[in-house]
């Protein structure tokens, strides 16, 4: 009973807190609770992956092999449980409504540069480990629509087509609602060709 009350209080607190506090409250992740959340998500098919320690600052814990998340995600690898839940949310509540609004079509494929990689932030030696080191991030390079259109962050972020430019900013802005940290071409040259989404402890949107 006391535990149930504590959870209710925690959930209420999380609902009132700002994004940064929410990120803090979300740590450490309650894996069982997160997996129960995944089981309730419509159209999601996944398998648990074995935990793996790949070094002092890299590895998998409670990672997910996403089998089906409603669209093809080319290049996806292992993904943390919270990232899987938020990616599902972003696809359904952010990306697809934006595609319908801007183009009257839906996304059928996301082109990703991947999720899990043992490397420092921005590939700079000496930096903190990237959230990719824990499969707690995804890099999105572009999408393909049902009408055959292909949209690329690199080519279209500052391209000529207004609807496409707005759509890419929709993807970024909707990412800011779903994930803790979002970095794109407006942040730095390292992100000129993709949107980086993660569920780490930093809270930013660029
Ligand atoms: Zn990234």
Keywords, separated by commas or semicolons:
single chain, 206 residues, alpha+beta, seven-stranded mixed β-sheet, two-stranded antiparallel ribbon, 6 helices, disordered N terminus, binds zinc ion, Extensin family protein, signal
Which structural class fits the helix and strand makeup? alpha+beta
Give the total of beta strands.
11
Q: Write out the distinct hetero groups bound to the structure.
A: zinc ion
Strand content: 15-25%
Main sheet makeup: 7 strands, mixed
Overall mean confidence score, pLDDT: 88
Report, as a whole number of angstroms, the end-to-end distance: 42 Å
Please indicate the count of domains.
Answer: 1
User: What is the percent of helical residues?
Assistant: 25-40%
Overall geometry comes to globular
Number of DSSP helices? 6
SSE order, as H and E? HHHEEEEEHEEEHHEEE
Query: From the alpha-carbon coordinates, what is the Rg to the nearest angstrom?
Result: 17 Å
Walk me through what this model shows:
With 206 residues, the chain is an alpha+beta fold. It has one domain (29-205). The chain is built from 6 helices and 11 strands. The chain has helices at residues 2-16, 19-25, 31-39, 81-103, 153-156, 162-178, and strands at residues 45-48, 52-55, 58-60, 64-68, 72-74, 107-114, 137-145, 150-152, 181-183, 195-198, 204-205. A hairpin with a 4-residue loop joins strand 7 (137-145) and strand 8 (150-152). It is globular, with a radius of gyration of 17 Å. Bound molecules: zinc ion. Residues 132, 137, 139, 196 line the site of zinc ion.
């Amino acid at each position: 009973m006391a535990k149930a009350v504590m959870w209710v209080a925690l959930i209420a607190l999380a609902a009132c807190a700002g994004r940064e506090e929410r990120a803090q409250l979300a740590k450490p992740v309650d894996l069982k609770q997160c997996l129960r959340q995944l089981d309730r998500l419509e159209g999601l098919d996944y398998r648990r992956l074995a935990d793996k320690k790949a070094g002092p600052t890299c590895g998998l814990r409670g990672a997910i092999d996403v089998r089906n998340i409603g669209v093809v995600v080319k290049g996806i690898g292992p993904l943390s449980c919270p990232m899987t839940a938020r990616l599902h949310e972003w696809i359904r509540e952010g990306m697809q409504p934006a595609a319908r609004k801007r183009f009257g079509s839906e996304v059928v494929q996301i082109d990703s540069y991947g999720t899990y990689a043992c490397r420092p932030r921005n590939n700079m030696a000496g930096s903190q480990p990237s959230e990719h080191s824990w499969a707690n991030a995804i890099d999105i390079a572009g999408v393909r629509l049902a009408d055959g259109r292909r949209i690329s962050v690199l080519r279209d972020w500052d391209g000529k087509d207004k609807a496409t430019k707005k759509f890419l900013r929709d993807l970024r802005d909707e990412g800011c609602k779903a994930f803790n940290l979002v970095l794109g071409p407006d942040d730095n040259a390292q992100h000129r060709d993709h949107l980086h989404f993660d569920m780490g402890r930093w809270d930013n949107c660029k």
